Structures are given as structure tokens and as C-alpha cells.
Amino acid sequence: MHSFGSALGLLLFLTGCTGSGSSAGPGIQPREAEILTQNYYWDKARGPHQFTDAQIKALFGRAPAMLYTNGERSEIYISELAWALAAAGDRRYAALLGREPVRVQSKVLHFIKHFSTGCGLSYPRTWSLPGSQFLEEEKKAEQKEGELKDQGTQNAEASLPSDGASS
Asked: Helix 102-113 and helix 72-97: axis angle, to 10°?
């Protein structure tokens, strides 16, 4: 029989996050480095990543197009966003992202959600941006759309004649 601690450890291992922590930024903190190394292709041996404001803005600008990309390109892009957040820190990242249109903010937040919230890190300034509210509204709209599709499918199936019908 497994103890609660080992079950929790297994859950954290499976989700790719261990321990807890918060971001202190600027500069990549030890907890962030651990998560970036395990899940976001970051190599500590290459030294600290530095991002200029222009580089971070360029990353943000790619967000709408990257929403329709999958596979390796998408993973690399998400990793770059996570690296930039850890390197810049919450205050600077939020200040730069806050200058972007709300739709861009919501796309960026969509991509960094697992890194910034799913791994026990905290970036309150970044998540207080208007794009986070827009992201929640989009999510609710998608759920409603899915429910309507399911309901339409059920209605269509109910209107089909049964196999045992005789004329």
C-alpha cells in the first residue's frame, strides 16, 4: 500500500513538476531552473538566458500564429516563452505583455499556463493582465460550443429511425 506522500510524488512525476516554489525574478531562480531543465529543453550548462525587451516582444508577436502549430515547433516556442518569463521575472514580463493586445496576451498565457501555474510557480502580475480574463471567457465559450455540438449530435441520433422499425 502506497502512502499519501509516494502517491503525491508519483502524481508530480507524471505531470513533470516536483516540489513547490514561486518565482522571484528577474533572473532564473533555482526552482524555475529545475522545471525548465526537466520540461522545457533548458540547459543550465549554457548559462543564464538573457532576453532583451525586443526579443520578448518578438516572441509575443508570434503567439497568434503559433496557436495553430503543433509538434516540435510548438514545444520549442512554449519553451522560449517559459525561458523568457523565468529570465525576465514576473514584473518585467507582465509589463511587456501588458503592452500587447488582449488577444495576444491570452494566447501567450495559454501557452505558458502549465509552466506558470501547473508547476507550483507564481507569477501574479502576469496572470492579473486582462488577457487572463479573456482566456477564461474563451475557454467558457469553447466549452459551451462543445456542449451544443454534443446536444446537436444527441438530437440527430434520436431522430434517426431505429433498426427494428417496420413499415
From this structure: 130
